[in-house]
Amino acid sequence: MLDTSNADGILMSDGSTNIVVRDNIISNTGDDAISCVWNDGYPTPINKVLITGNLITGGIGHGINVCHAVNITIEGNSIVGCDAGGISVYRWGTNPVYADNIHIVGNNITDASKNGILIDGCDNSIIESNHIINPELVGIRLGNYNDLRIIGNVIDGAPYGVAIDNQNIFANCNNLAILNNDIRGFSGNAVALAPAGGTVVNQSIV
Questions:
Q1: 77, 93, 129, 142: which sits with the fewest CB atoms below 10 Å from its CB?
Q2: Model pLDDT, residue 3
Q3: 3-class secondary structure, 155
Q4: From CA 134, how far away is CA 81, in angstroms rounded?
């Protein structure tokens, strides 16, 4: 059990590979609870990381944060009440490289400040079968991506269910499919894709 650190709870950085982060209890971190960050200028990205079965509560940063990493699976974690959001995959610093082949599957995210899941800098990835309950802003918030699938998620009590960042009018958004999600209890839009567009099929919207 890790409680009340002054920085990240668990950090994987430049060149880390073949790592499993499993069955930890992490609370009240001073930054992200679990973080994979490939820093500018380092030649080798983080590769082949499985993050599974962790319980994350509180904390100033994200529950789980991925920047520029490749082949990452985030599966079966429970995240409650993190100040910067539940799970985030995004670009950081001046590094132009997107994260690639990120699977976010079967996680429970509850009462996240800001967004349940944030994608802003990600290729060839999937968000599937997650339960996102009562995030402050958006259930699944999108910025820059290529080839993204959002399938079979439950989003309950978010002001917006799935949304492109409406402040990011120059977002590079290509090949999006939103399939068979259950979106309920929203106060804004269930699915808001302007300016990018995408394929939206067979949603349950309540």
A1: 93
A2: 56
A3: strand
A4: 10
C-alpha to C-alpha distance for 140 and 206, rounded to whole angstroms:
17
In whole angstroms, what is the distance from residue 103 CA to residue 50 CA? 10
For tokens 């990011």, what's the residue? 168
Is 28:2 a contact under the CB 8 Å cutoff?
A: no
Query: Is-contact 121 144, C-beta < 8 A?
Result: yes
**Cis peptide bond N-terminal to 195, omega within 30:** yes
pLDDT in tens, 101-119: 999 999 999 999 999 999 9
Q: Which residue did the predictor score with more confidence, 85 or 166?
A: 85
Question: Which pLDDT tens digit goes with each residue over 29-81?
Answer: 888 999 998 776 677 888 999 999 999 998 899 999 998 889 999 999 999 99
Rounded to whole angstroms, the Cα distance separating 60 from 43 reads 30
CA of 19: how far to CAs of 13, 24, 71, 199, in Å?
A: 11, 14, 11, 34
**CA dihedral (101, 11, 74, 118) positive or negative:** negative
Number of Cβ within a 10 Å radius of residue 79: 30
Distance CA 41, CA 88 (A): 22
